[in-house]
């Protein structure tokens, strides 16, 4: 009977094999202990082949790159996933209108959307929102009118998160809720700074 134990550290892998067998030259059972230590310097052996985490959900991989979720670890992202809703918009379809009350934010997964704002000379295009970018984050922190209209330039898929769900998530996981709130605050601060410095606000400032 062979029982194997693997013990790992930063610099070594110890493999201990306990081999209980019968030695015909001796009475009873013999005991043999063999220890083999394999040095690991980061080049010869890849530990990920031994303890490889399952691949991250493609949608979560995109979400993890969004600034307001960038501080979330994998466990937190998995919890966040339960509060994200996939939405599909056809080309020309409006996601929300300028002036309507905001309820949540969106992350673009596929496609392309355009943000417009009314001006004295007519409609002004603020910019295009691409996959991996978010918009509407301000609505997560409080109700208020949307600052722009967002319309799909082509068939698009987004993940939506609404304010009541952020509240529920923050109650269940206060640390995660705090991270998201701080992420939103940081994004809004950076956008306000851009405006103060004379730059145009990002198209996702809605």
Short description:
The chain is an alpha+beta fold and 206 residues long. The chain is built from four helices and eleven strands, in the order βββααββββββββαα.
Contiguous uncertain segments of 5+ residues: 1-24, 26-43
User: Which outline best applies?
Assistant: globular
CATH class wording of the largest domain: Mainly Beta
CATH topology of the largest domain: Jelly Rolls
Assign the CATH superfamily of the largest domain.
Jelly Rolls
Strand order of the largest sheet: 4-11-6-9
CATH architecture of the largest domain: Sandwich
User: Main β-sheet: number of strands, strand sense, barrel status?
Assistant: 4 strands, antiparallel
Total helices: the number is: 4
Strand content: 25-35%
Decide which structural class fits the backbone.
Answer: alpha+beta
Q: Roughly how much helix do the residues carry, as a percent range? A: 10-25%
Order of secondary-structure elements: EEEHHEEEEEEEEHH
Mean residue pLDDT? 78
How does this structure look, described?
The protein has 206 residues and is an alpha+beta fold. The protein has two domains: 2-49, no CATH class; 58-196, Sandwich (Jelly Rolls), CATH 2.60.120. 23% of the residues lie in helices and 34% in strands. The protein is built from four helices and eleven strands. The chain has helices at residues 58-64, 74-81, 163-172, 174-196; strands at residues 2-8, 12-21, 30-39, 85-89, 94-96, 104-110, 113-119, 122-129, 134-135, 149-152, 156-162. The strands form three sheets. The chain has a four-stranded antiparallel beta sheet. A hairpin with an 8-residue loop joins strand 2 and strand 3. Helix 3 (163-172) packs across helix 4 (174-196). The protein is globular, with a radius of gyration of 27 Å. Mean pLDDT is 78; it is low at 1-24 and 26-43.
